[in-house]
């Protein structure tokens, strides 16, 4: 029979020596916490600065010849700038991430300021060209640095197709920008849409030729899906060149929406009847 005392106190373990704690652990946690506090305080301070700027602008400058939308743009752009400062403050130190943040938010600031302050000096086509040009810069400045992150072995395997795809994309954007800026004003809307669709069709053909792999999707031909898109673009080109002028803008928009729905239904029906599931995609390269 066990006569051990249930009330007997268990031995109290001695506290761990401070020397057993890895050196610097507590200090790094404290420094990390203090760093987060500093960033939080700085973020709060930047918001206070923006509120002060907005108050001063509205009180002293907003009513001195600026329109409603110009004042909205100033306040919106200044808020985005404060967001940029905070994003850089909290973002990792990796320069590609910081560059992407600067370019992305800078692009938004440009868009916000362009329309109320500068759009009135240009035609609608030229404003659209300016937006496309800004998109081209956005793609180049953000995509270029990240391309260097692709492993050399992987990049060398498709470098030819990647180069052709990039050249095609920027040639397409350059053509649209030049057409819209210098020539579009001399033609009506539907002819300009036709020109844009033709350029899109050319880029689409090159892109499909570059990107389609040797996938064995039997019994589905690998060109069937892209072919549906090709037919849709051709039909839109024919419509806008020969028939769109006989209808109003709303009717033409309805035709475009109907064509999108029709092509989507055809694509879904073809895919449902021919695709055998994910196992049908036996990629060869």
Strand content: under 5%
> Could you describe the largest sheet, including whether it forms a barrel?
none
Indicate the structural class.
mainly alpha
Number of helices: 8
How far apart, in Å, are the first and last alpha carbons? 76 Å
* General shape: globular
Give the overall average pLDDT. 84
Whole-angstrom Rg = 30 Å
Compute the number of strand runs: 0
Q: What is the ordering of alpha helices and beta strands?
A: HHHHHHHH
Q: Summarize the amount of helix as a percent range.
A: over 70%
Low-confidence stretches: 14-21, 214-219
Describe the structure.
This protein has eight helices and no strands. It has helices at residues 25-61, 68-90, 95-117, 124-147, 152-183, 189-211, 224-243, 249-274. The longest helix is centred in the first third of the chain and has 37 residues, at 25-61. It starts with 24 loop residues before the first helix and ends in an 11-residue tail after the last helix. The model is unreliable at 14-21 and 214-219 (pLDDT under 50).
């Amino acid at each position: 029979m066990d006569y051990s005392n249930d009330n007997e106190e268990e031995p109290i373990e001695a506290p761990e020596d401070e020397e057993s704690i890895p050196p610097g652990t507590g200090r790094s946690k404290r420094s990390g916490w203090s760093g987060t506090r500093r960033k939080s305080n700085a973020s709060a301070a930047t918001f206070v600065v923006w509120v002060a700027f907005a108050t001063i602008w509205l009180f002293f400058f907003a009513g001195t010849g600026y329109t409603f939308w110009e004042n909205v743009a100033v306040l919106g752009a200044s808020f985005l700038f404060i967001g940029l400062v905070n994003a850089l403050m909290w973002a990792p130190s990796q320069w590609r991430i910081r560059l992407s943040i600067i370019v992305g938010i800078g692009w938004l600031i440009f868009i916000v300021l362009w329309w109320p302050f500068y759009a009135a000096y240009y035609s609608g086509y030229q404003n659209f060209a300016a937006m496309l040009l800004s998109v081209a810069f956005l793609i180049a400045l953000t995509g270029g640095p990240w391309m260097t992150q692709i492993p050399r072995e992987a990049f060398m395997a498709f470098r030819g197709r990647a180069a052709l795809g990039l050249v095609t994309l920027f040639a397409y954007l350059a053509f649209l920008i030049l057409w819209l800026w210098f020539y579009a004003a001399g033609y009506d809307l539907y002819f300009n849409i036709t020109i844009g669709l033709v350029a899109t069709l050319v880029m689409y053909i090159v892109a499909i030729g570059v990107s389609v792999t040797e996938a064995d999707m039997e019994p589905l031909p690998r060109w069937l899906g892209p072919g549906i898109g090709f037919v849709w673009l051709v039909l839109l080109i024919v419509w806008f060149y020969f028939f769109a002028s006989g209808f109003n803008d709303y009717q033409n928009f309805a035709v475009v929406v109907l064509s999108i729905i029709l092509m989507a239904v055809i694509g879904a029906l073809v895919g449902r009847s021919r695709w055998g599931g994910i196992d049908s995609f036996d990629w060869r390269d």
